[in-house]
Amino acid sequence: MMTPAADNEPRRGTRLTAWKVLVCYGCAGLFTMLVLATLVGAVSALIPESWSEKITVWQLFMYAGLFFSILLFSKFIGDLWRGSGEDLKLGFTDLPNPFYDEEFIKAPLHLQKQISKLQKELQIAQEERKRATSIGRDLNAQALKQEQIIASLSKKLTVLTRHHDNGRRLVGSAAYLLYKEEDWRSEMMNNILAEAITCLEKDQSDKSVALFKTHGDELRIEHYIRLSARSARRARFKKGEGFAGMIMESSKEEYISDVSLYSEIFGDIKPSDDYKSIVGLPIRVDDDILGVLCVQSEVVDGFTSQDLRTLRFYAHACALIFVYDIMVTKMSTEGVERDDN
């Protein structure tokens, strides 16, 4: 049993047989003749008797047919010219077509309305597509920006976590070595410098470290990582001399992102080890400079502002060792004095 919706659905794919087509056009022809006969009778009744000798009904229809034929043929040619972008072919010559209209639709009136409606809908759809594309592009840009922010925060969090673990290991190692009464100084300096370059944001594999200690008014390398032994032993800087001496004199941390731009600071006293950027931090207690911590990178702009904040912790850790040296020296001196007394 068919549902009402199925009853109302138009049948598709059916085609009239040949005899039905002939009957259709035959009936249309009879209807046209009937309409024409009616018009002829109506016009004959309306024509005044004074006109009947000069013009007949058929002549009126002939003139009217000629008029409409000229009108339709003119419209046909005009539509052809408006709808074609080619030159006008007049038989004896070709002329540029000044009548071409890109928006003109060459079709019956009802089709023109439908096509115009579809064109407007297509234009709206294209504008919506452009707007959607623009929104999608903006969303992709925002998503990429957020991904970069998340990646940066993730990297910072990783560095902070590693920094926390490094600090925990250093404190635990110092406590263990002191408890065992072992010579902890050299091992702790190596641990501090090794841990210092593992918690930087940029690539750590290109970093080298030099820990300077003051000996009177001179700086000497006390411990180092990834420097040549020759450079470590020959490096001696007075206050204000070289990069480390500049840090000692100013008592301020400095970061040079491109060493080649500051030849007046380094000059001939630059160590033979190749590095492109450097950061230096004073190891200070009150107003006394106990040493300088220098970290070098083999690339230009090898550090971030976060790296500077991180390295301050390790500079303070180095300060503890230098303060320990001072305390041992004072205790040793006081012990000698007591023996003398």
TrEMBL record:
Domain GAF: 186-321
InterPro entries (UniProt xref): GAF, GAF-like_dom_sf
Transmembrane segments: 21-43, 55-73
Key words, A-Z: Membrane, Plasmid, Transmembrane, Transmembrane helix
UniProt-recorded name of the protein: GAF domain-containing protein
